[in-house]
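Researcher: Please predict.
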Amino acid sequence: MTATAHFTGDANPYGGGDPYADYRTADHPFTHLVDLADRRLGAGVIAANDEFFAERENLLRPEPAHFDPERFGHKGKIMDGWETRRRRGASAERPHPVDEDHDWALIRLGAPGIVRGLVVDTAHFRGNYPQAVSVEAVSLPGSPSPEELLAPDVKWTTLVPRTAVGGHAANGFAVDVERRFTHLRLNQHPDGGIARLRVYGEVAPDPAWLTALGTFDVVALENGGRVEDASDRFYSPATNTIQPGRSHKMDDGWETRRRRDRGNDWIHYHLAEEADIRAVEIDTAYLKGNAAGWAQLTAREETGAWTVFLPRTRLQPDTNHRFVLPEAVRADQVRIDIFPDGGISRLRLFGSLTERGAARLTARHAELGG
């Protein structure tokens, strides 16, 4: 594990104007990956030892932390993050907390997977951030309770050792642990506030669950699908197109900038594994004056040739389009081309794993300790 952007120390007190003007951040090399702790995937902060000043649930809110300098409550300043009370020592002779004192929060990942990087964001916590943080992870089946996660026989793996962090900063950490995890424990030493936690990585689905489903969305993020590349990410990320559920607003899909050339935009996907695709949905929900005009789907196996399986087809604005394929299409990669630009909100590819795909997924699950 190495810190990709290391900040320490206080930020300046808020002096008015844009509260993000002096925010300390950097380009982290892993933030193009899916956030395994995204609430849309079902993530949650299931317990914390203390949340006196600000609720633990704020950690996973999808939007950047908001700061209102005038917002106070009966407990003090109301912050958009998780903030604990100030720790104290045992007596007047020993007023300071001891080295092992710390606060913690338990996070259930929305999709179990391999963690490649984390951002512990202390935005707006300028003098009340933790001195240091650490992050541990574990993989447990089912839906364990906080008591089960904290049981003495549960063995946690350190992803981020105790490391000093800075206030009002996006503290990034690269992770090099090739294991599948279901839960994290975020520790702050000894106390303080954290605005947001982002957990970037790769979804590692349970092959037994997918086998039981039989037919499922083989490109869905929660089932292990991912975006390999996209022509344009100007307004919103291409990963939005494989998020759970329908889009709820325009920027919850994928929208490209306006083209002024003769080209077109596209997204390249990897499926959960090799599969036979039998039906397709292309949804343009909430894209009304900016939906793609036409779409085409091509597929391939490994490094083979791309083959068209849905020819260029007219799309309607704010509409879910459904297509039953005349015969199953075998693939582990799919590309959607839209013409000439615009966007879609969701792509669904319904099918089932091939024998080879199921075997490879099961072998990978075992390698990751699943």
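Model: The chain is about 5% helix and 40% strand.
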